[in-house]
Amino acid sequence: MWVDGADSPSSFSLAVTWPNAVLKTFGTDVFDASPVAGKQVSLHFDYTAPAGLDDTYGVWLDNLAVTCGSVVDPAPYAFLSGTSMASPMVSGAAALLVSLKPSASVAQVRSALLGGAKRLDSWKGRTSTGGRLDVAAAMGRLVPPDTVFTEPTGVSGQSASLHMAQNGTLPEVTFQCRLDSGEFRSCKADGILRGLRPGRHVVQARAVDRYGNVDRTPASSSFTVTGCLVPRLIGSSVARVREIIPKAGCRIGAVSRPAGVPLWRLKVRATYPQAFTYFPTTAPVKIAFVRR
After folding, report:
1. What whole-number distance in Å separates Cα of residue 150 and Cα of residue 159?
2. In sequence order, what are the residues at sequence separation of 6 or more whose Cβ sits closer than 8 angstroms to the Cβ of residue 97?
3. 260-272 as b/e, with b when 16 or more CB fall inside 10 Å?
4. Is 201's pLDDT higher than 90?
5. pLDDT, tens only, 205-263
6. DSSP letters along 195-229, please?
7. Is 277 in a helix, a strand, or coil?
């Protein structure tokens, strides 16, 4: 509920936007169904706006009062249900959204309420959205999570390091990442992508708030993974090969050598005869050895 225990004010203002200013509401039970057969009641306003005003200005109605048929006494709170309770829920949700973003316009609050509603087939045509009020979704639409990369993507060999954060103060935010055209998957704010193919890559990251609202404009970062360079190794000793290959950022693939000959008696007979861009995921370095 959106109350703090204080007395409600004696007057308030109601913002109405053109067109479709009226939000038709209806009460449901815990199964999103009508608990009892009842009438749908809504307030309609007829007004005339000066020519030339933009739609988003809205119309403010003063001294509007809604009187209940009965009061709850003496307890300050009680369990109630029905259509009469549906309108205050929407009004309270609107107040909550305004408290979340005081600078929000009437049109923005209305759009968040309607856009965040959970669509239900059973309510199609019976409410303004054909769905049920979803305050968490409305909050996410009004102030969605925003994601930023806090550092440039660092590349080392076949790995890339990611550092991201939310651009805001929403609590309990998690992240999802996507590499190139893949699917979004859960990831850490500071994570590492491994086993990358050489070439240009694009990684996207998006924050998700505690209510499941997703950043609709993910942060994006591009980087390039280069293949390692295999230097000329003909005539090199086994020890030299073991030293050079890792320093070049490569890995040794299949090794062929004469049976029964110790490694210290062998040298490289053939490998790539000149500097060559080595693609780790497709072409392992193969080295053959012969007697010294």
Report:
1. 18
2. 104, 109, 112, 113, 138, 139, 142
3. eeeeeebbbeebb
4. yes
5. 999 988 788 898 999 999 988 766 666 666 677 777 777 776 666 666 556 667 777 76
6. SPPSEEEEEEEEEE-TT--B-SS-EEEEEEEPPEE
7. strand
Please state the three-class secondary structure of 63-115 as a single string: CCCCCCCCCCCCCCCCCCCCHHHHHHHHHHHHHHHHHHCCCCCHHHHHHHHHH
Topology adopted by domain 147-225: Immunoglobulin-like (2.60.40)
For 63, residues 6+ apart whose C-beta sits below 8 A from its C-beta are 11
Most confident of 6-20, 193-207, 260-274: 193-207
Strand partners, 207: 175
The ranges of the chain annotated as CATH 2.60.40.10 are: 147-225
Whether CATH 3.30.10.20 fits 228-291: yes
pTM for the model: 0.50
